[in-house]
Amino acid sequence: MTAPLVRGEGLTRAFHRRGGLFGRGVPMMALRGVDIELHRGEAVGVVGESGCGKSTLGRLLLRLMTPTSGRVMFEDRDLATISAAELRALRRRMQMVFQDPYGSLDPRRVIGAQIADGMVIHGLAQGTTVQDRVAALLRQVGLDPGHAQRLPHEFSGGQRQRIAVARALATQPDFIVADEPVSALDVSIQAQVVNLLADLRGELGLALVFISHDLHVVRHLCDRVVVMYLGLVMEEGPAAEIFRAPAHPYARALLAATPSLRHRGAAASPLAGEVPSIAKPPSGCVFRTRCPMAQPACAQSVPALRLLPGDATRRIACHRAEEIAA
Amino acid sequence: MRRAAYRGLILPGVLAAIIVLLAIAAPIMPLIDPVRQDIAHRLTGPSAQHWLGQDEYGRDVLSRIIWGARVSLSVAFSAAAAAALIGTLLGILGGYFRGVVELLTVRAAEIVLCFPPLLLALLVVTLLGPGAGTLIFSLSILFAPGFARVAYAETLSTRALDYVTAQHALGARTRRILALTVLPNIATPLIVQFSLTVAAAMLLESGLSFLGLGVVPPAPSWGLMIRGARGAMEQAPLLLFWPCLALTGTVLVLNLLCDRLRDALDPRGRAMGRPGFLGRVFALPPVPSPPAPGLLSVQGLTLQVPGPNGPIEVVRGVSLSLAPGETLAIVGESGSGKTLTGLAVMGLLPAAVTPVAGSIMLTGQDGMPRDLLRLPEPELRALRGRDMAMIFQDPSSSLNPLLRIGTQVAESLRAHGTHDGVHDRVVALLRQVGLPDPERAAMAYPHELSGGQRQRVMIAAAIANHPRLLLADEPTTALDVTVQAQILALLQALKEAEGGMGMVFVTHNLAVVAEIADRVAVMYAGEVVEEGPADEVLAAPRHPYTAALIASTPEGEAERLSAIPGAVPQPWAMPPGCRFAPRCAMAQPACTVTAPALEEVAPRRAARCLRWRELA
Amino acid sequence: MLAFAARRLIVSVGLVWAVASLVFLVIHLIPGDPAELLLSQGGIAPDPAAVEELRDRLGLNLPLWTQYLDYMGGLLRGDFGLALQDEHPIVDEIALRLPRTLELVGAAGLIALVFGVPLGVAAALRAGGMLDRLLTAGAGLALSVPVFVLGTLTVLVLAQHLRLVPAGGYVPFARDPGRHILLLLMPAGTIAVGLGAVVFRVMRASVLEVLERDHVRAAQARGVSPAGIIRRHVLRNALTPVVTVVALHLGSLLGGTVLVEFVFNWPGLSGYLVRSVESRDYPEVMGIVLVISALFVLLNFLVDLLYAVIDPRVRHG
Q1: For the whole model, what pTM was predicted?
Q2: Model-level ipTM above the cut of 0.85
Q3: C89 SS3 class
Q4: Nearest alpha-carbon partner for C192 in C99, C299, C269, C117
Q5: What is the pLDDT of residues B1-28, one digit of tens each?
Q6: Which CATH class name applies to C97-268+293-316?
Q7: What distance in Å separates residue C197's CA from the closest CA in chain B?
């Protein structure tokens, strides 16, 4: 197997909230040691509920945020140790698409200029070639190239998301992180953007990290899925496998709780309680407080992410993996 | 709206321009030397030569007023400009880099704010002696922290926005991000702050001069003129009047300019209307009493909002019906009018939205049907929270952060005449909706609960009086999936416990519809396009929009999602004919001409499509 | 709540110390010799021997940090030093005049709130109506009239022309309560006009904003009466920004007293300050600026506590 394009190792990120008489208070661990690999042309879906650390993970991979510990390797370069100039140059190859199509475009600049930004910053094109490239990109994402001189507010949410995709593509990146790119859109528009991303991935051979809380969207777009809970990976493996038969109790619950058009009453066995605060995570396995399979032993130690017995493609973090596999 | 706001700028803008031009042109105007004394004619009234008279040294008042404007304005503008430059720089750097930089810039500048402004100016005057230079220096120190604060706060909120992160992700240098992205986006409040500061600087300058600690005589200054005229106010009160008028008028113009600028640049502040609960004024023609509903029957409901080219129909001819114990889902995308329809039933429409036609019949707890659209507000209020109740999308903002949970649930009971045993009943309700430790939850504040728990509280308040009708507007959209499943289960259980309670569930999520609804009404662009039993509609849609919506839901095994091309039309640009035609795969020329009516397509099923038969 | 108050108190004490140090440093580090400044009248260079004698007497020849420690030690004992002019203890003069200024500020604040808050609510509830437009225009005008202009015109019209009230001055409460209040009302009212306009505008905007919030609509959906909604869901929520803005304006309120005390001959702290600035009596200026700044910090501390009383989120945060 070839070397991965992007690799995150033991990624941890703490945030501080003010509290107490002085000082910074307790650190809140948004991410508590996550390993992730992404190969060229591969699409990995990261799913989980609020507070699971999926957005933090995306930003760490692009080094828009520095990890508290752990490191991110892009090809053979450690993003934490390369110089600022090298990192800036490397940014040409990794891009991001954001959730909110209204907040991700500068309201005061015409969209053509915003799409051109990356090319100008990295000196990829000059003069009229920039205009031509912008026109080509707009066409590629299904917009009218004649609209380059319009301001963002003249576009609908779905169109803005297309513009954001065009901006990310402008530097011809190898790697894109899409952070909930369709959750702010209407269903009928969601499908347009999901299809666009799927097409572009095929045409351009992009590596894609697709962050979402919607399992169904992920299934459509991704080869592999990472299920996260409270800053840790619970299960990881081929998308089709995980959707067919999720192994980890949390992955099962998440899939079961998602309502379905096909069968009524699918969401009949909800988990008890809600996601605990990341400031006070449970001891041992973080999921044990809501887990239907929890035993006293689950409170003792954090389960490692390991191969599911009898399945060389999936890994789960559960003390009772053997019983699940059996 | 925006154009009107810009028009508002004209008057103060022109006045300010005149004042500034007068000040600039003072040296080339045929004015008498403002410092030439004429003791013989001191305190003389207006004359042909001295239009506004002469002051206590016989100097020409008009000339001194105009030259005084020059002094006041140049001090105020220079100080404001210097303060803007320094403060903005400090604020942007502090707000963008945070940490130590913030401490050294913004926090350091804020020490100045620990001194009352006039005192600080006096301190500087003590050290440097009075004079225009001292004034500019001390005023810039005084006002720079204000700019730093504004720039800091704005930078802080701007840098968190995705488009700034996007620049960073593109590999832009910090310099480029600050100059090209941050600065233009925080310019608006800085411009407002600037005009505010010029006015404040004029006030301080004239105040200091009035105390004799600002501009040094004999240079003309409005503050000094007032100080001088004060000594002679018994003999020549008019002398006091002119500089007071000039000063107040100029500050008034500047303040007005500032207010209008704010309105023009930030249109949010102007949106205003009569608060709905103080009384709705609808003039609906009476209708011949419509048939008695099962529980709820909406007939031909049409809602309008005012638009630039006449009223816009945001909901058109919506008809719905609900039997006791039934759950009706209203499903649609943003702009479909589903939420407005729900709010119309409750009589909680925003001030700008007016019902213009139709009726909403509700059978109350007493078995009496009433037309909610024609009910006076006090009678409607008596129904709200008792016969019909509502839960909203965002449970965090729907609870008053300053009141205890128990108090807010108790409101439902007290508003409808329950005053005894309220506390016990509240605790019982909180227990019923599944809150752990309901005694303690009743004493908690909303911020102490999680999102799902807050929605449970909203539900407890809604069912307090055993309503006949429960309206739920996207009650699970803001929640996580596992919590959504809990809330859906809770609503189901409550419906069974409260025998005969009907529910209207507004949502954008078809899968949720499949989960809980007996009947479904699909809305598109303000109209109901299909209506019928939920399982039948989802299994065999009779409207192309419903079919396309189902197909675009990312659930099936299909490799590729089928998307609906285009976007929902804007309410002011509705297509003629069928409103879905421009996006419809089945549209024919006829569809763009005739607006189809809602037709019965099967028993208890209706669709608004010319070609529904081809879908069957 | 206690931890919150303690945290704020520590910050406030630190601020007062920072202000005192800053005032000290500014006076001592700025180029120019205070002794020379004091002795040079009318631009004539003073006798160097006299300057040296004064520097010695004021301790200006000691090392800076010794002076600093002496000054800080004095402050801790409640000793602000002696005035240069007639060598009276500065703290005595401050103790005599501070209560009068506080009385003025308190009365002005009270008047401003008593009028500003209810009128702001009334205008917001009838937004766009006749009353609203009238009050809003009035507030705009009130904000644009400088206090000393308003004060001077008040004296001109009420005292000089109509002879309704005395032109200003001060009578101790114990000697003549009625006259004391009459003399207080004019300067206090003058300050209150501007402050009241600020309170009015913020209250109006704040109520309008709160009326749009979801929890107000949710209360309506429960069938709560308009009076109940305004009382429980609007007023208290709308008060937070008012507290913020009043706190922001405390500075100009305290500054405003300087001008108003001057116009109405009110013998408060500010008049004392103007006199010391005129005579360049820097120990006096330092003492007064320090006291007023400390007062300002104290008021801000009280405002922070008030936030916590109004909003449980601040208490628990």
Answers
A1: 0.86
A2: yes
A3: strand
A4: C117
A5: 456 667 778 888 899 999 989 888 888 8
A6: mainly alpha
A7: 13
